[in-house]
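As a next step, the fold was encoded as tokens, giving this record:
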Amino acid sequence: MDQDQQIFARINEMVDDERKLREALASGAIDSTTEHQRLGQLERELDQCWDLLRQRRAKVEFGENPDEARVRPESEVEGYQG
């Protein structure tokens, strides 16, 4: 499950990046357009990480190798209907 820990670490980094972007906007270091663009990219990457974790857990649940899970393209992950 070391890979899961690496994925969680990346998620935590991106959450920190989100916080820093919001702080940069509040302090005037960046404008709202820049913040919006960067946040959008971070959100898409976060969705891919969460999707990868769900894939890994599903593979474990069904007796498959979780290391066979792969990051899916943004277009696929973002196209999910909830």
Remarks:
- The radius of gyration is 15 Å.
- Helices lie at 2-27, 32-61, 74-77.
- The chain has a mean pLDDT of 92.
